[in-house]
Specification:
- The structure holds 2 protein chains of 2 kinds.
- By secondary structure, chain A is mainly β.
- Chain A contains no helices and 11 strands.
- In chain A, a hairpin with a 2-residue loop joins strand 6 and strand 7.
- The N and C termini of chain A lie far apart (about 40 Å).
- The mean pLDDT of chain A is about 95.
- Chain B has strands at about 5, 10-15, 20-25, 30-35, 45-50, 55, 65, 75-80, 85-95, 95, 100, 105, 110-115.
- Classes of the chains: A mainly beta, B mainly beta.
- The interface of A and B includes residues 34, 49, 93, 95 and 103 of A.
């Protein structure tokens, strides 16, 4: 049973546009929601993470929006650049107790 | 430099052979993990270890084995019982606080295993 559903599977955005990737979870015990960025042939790297005590977290051009009642969270990439072209994974866990459960990933292509 | 190393980067094996993938970390992390990545499938947890000489099965442990004899090392053996072993394998580590896992996982560069 997939506990974290991620969409879309792939996304093409023009340079300067906004990229939006969505995730939904089922387990109400989850309280840590990170996003990882992976370039081809490399391991994923933590991009940004949020906990349910806030509804939004921003780091540079990257923003996580969190909706606890809907059990959804999303990644927004403002002013998308070709260098942002990568695969993005959302994940969730119960802080301190469980391992991360990952979404299936979104392949983002930012066209020049 | 602190980090996680995985070797080799590419590995080719004949069907029916066991193969061991290496993972070493110098981050002084207690917890280590192995994931398998297939196209369109995300990252699936194979095994994880919170402390030396102890490890737990993840979601897809069948056909795999691990050991944790040293804090820095967590090798993964892909056995001949694994029906479809060709994949990209990722090792990760994280800290612990007492008996609790800390949240951020740091990943190695991965090993691409191809079984011919």
């Amino acid at each position: 049973q997939q506990q974290v559903k991620q969409s879309p599977q792939s996304l093409i955005v023009q340079k300067g546009g906004i990229s939006i990737i969505n995730c939904a979870y089922e387990n109400t015990a989850f309280d840590y929601f990170p996003w990882y960025q992976q370039f081809p042939g490399k391991g994923p790297a933590l991009l940004i993470a949020i906990r349910p005590d806030v509804s939004e977290k921003k780091e540079g051009r990257f923003t996580i929006s969190f909706n606890k009642s809907a059990k959804q969270f999303s990644l927004h990439i403002m002013d998308s650049q070709p260098g942002d072209s990568a695969t993005y994974f959302c994940a969730a866990s119960t802080s301190g107790y469980s391992t991360l459960t990952f979404g299936k990933g979104t392949m983002l292509l930012v066209s020049p | 430099d602190g980090g996680i190393t995985q070797s080799p980067k590419y590995l080719f094996r004949k069907e029916g052979q066991n193969v061991t993938l290496s993972c070493e970390q110098n981050l002084n992390h207690d917890a280590m993990y192995w994931y398998r990545q297939d196209p369109g499938q995300g990252l699936r947890l194979i095994y994880y270890s919170q402390i030396v000489n102890d490890f737990q099965k993840g979601d897809i442990a069948e056909g795999y084995s691990v050991s944790r004899e040293k804090k820095e090392s967590f090798p993964l053996t892909v056995t001949s019982a694994q029906k479809n072993p060709t994949a990209f394998y990722l090792c990760a580590s994280s800290g612990t606080s007492g008996r609790y896992l800390t949240d951020t996982q740091y990943f190695g560069p991965g090993t691409r295993l191809t079984v011919l």
